[in-house]
Design goal:
The chain is built from 14 helices and nine strands. It is α/β, with parallel strands linked by helices. A six-stranded parallel β-sheet has the order 3-2-1-4-5-6, with helices on both faces. A three-stranded mixed β-sheet has the order 7-8-9. Strand 8, helix 8 (144-155) and strand 9 (158-165) form a beta-alpha-beta unit. The longest helix has 29 residues, at 169-197. The termini are far apart.
């Protein structure tokens, strides 16, 4: 019998599926629930167990992990008679790894405390590749004791694991992360169009840029997307649009100016309005190409 905690995993999307499978590989007993039958089949094929509902998944779990698109989905699976808070056992640890507003995380922690359930907000960065390779950056908000208890589990999912402060802090840091990533992708996209229009060997240029101060994880991860115009979603424009709304709103609440971030948020919104919301966020290149006169 394993001494590892029993895990319920809610949300088996682009990120949730490989992350839950990495827990199975690490020896955890994982029961999952999601809306897509094929995702449940994928989990069972990897050695996990499928549950027909949230309530069924969480009933006997020591740790419950949610990885869903946004605040409304977190609230939908957490609250109500069929939700996590009404069906999880007292003392369970709820780890929300979705990217949502800090206010939602703080509210969830308060509501869960009344039910005897502990909460960590633990959003991640690294995209689909980072999830598959178990090298995610995990930014955590919540009590130190709960973080310490969850640390072995986090280590099966990522490499950079940091408690950033009380409830909501992980989401605040994730919002900052998404700001930096969006601005970085936009800068890379502009550079790509500039280089191509100048007649430079793009592959050679990106190689040398990656080795200097202009190098970044974004450039390394997205270089092939730019070169091949392959915008298969690792992280969709739709989700980055949501995240730019989170950081814009959070910054306004604390009185922080985001002049460049505001421009990039509008560019992301524009790309989404043009029908590219389902593409990878590296598709910001398409927006720059349109502005530069190309038909895409």
């Amino acid at each position: 019998m394993s001494t590892l905690p029993k895990v319920a995993w809610i949300g088996l999307g682009i990120m949730g599926s490989p992350m839950s499978e990495n827990l199975v590989k690490a020896g955890y007993d994982v029961t999952g629930h999601t809306l897509e039958r094929e995702k449940l089949d994928r989990l069972t094929a990897a050695g996990g167990t499928a549950a027909a509902s949230v309530a069924e998944a969480v009933r006997d779990a020591d740790v419950i992990i949610t990885m869903v698109p946004a605040s409304p989905q977190v609230e939908a699976v957490a609250y109500g008679p069929d939700g996590i808070l009404e069906n999880a056992q007292r003392g369970a640890l709820l780890i929300d790894m979705s990217s949502i507003t800090p206010q939602t995380s703080v509210g969830l922690a308060a509501a869960a405390k009344e039910k005897g359930i502990r909460v960590l907000d633990a959003p991640v960065s690294g995209g689909e590749a980072g999830a598959i390779e178990a090298v995610l950056s995990i930014m955590v908000g919540g009590d130190q004791a709960d973080f310490d208890e969850a640390k072995p589990l986090f280590e099966a999912l990522g490499k950079t694991i940091v408690r950033c402060g009380p409830h909501g802090s992980g989401q605040t840091v994730k919002a900052a992360n998404q700001l930096i990533v969006a601005v970085n992708i936009q800068a890379c996209a502009e550079a790509v169009v500039f280089l191509e229009k100048s007649g430079v060997d793009l592959a050679a240029a990106l190689d040398v840029l990656g080795g200097g101060l202009a190098g970044s994880t974004v450039l390394a991860r997205k270089k092939d997307n730019f070169l091949k115009r392959d915008f298969t979603p690792g992280f969709r424009i739709d989700l980055h649009h949501k995240d730019m709304g989170i950081v814009t709103d959070a910054a306004r609440n604390v009185g922080a100016a985001l002049p460049v971030g505001a421009v990039v948020a509008q560019l992301v919104a524009s790309l989404r309005a043009q029908g590219d919301g389902g593409l990878d966020h590296s598709a910001l290149l398409r927006a720059v190409e349109r502005l530069s006169g190309a038909r895409v």
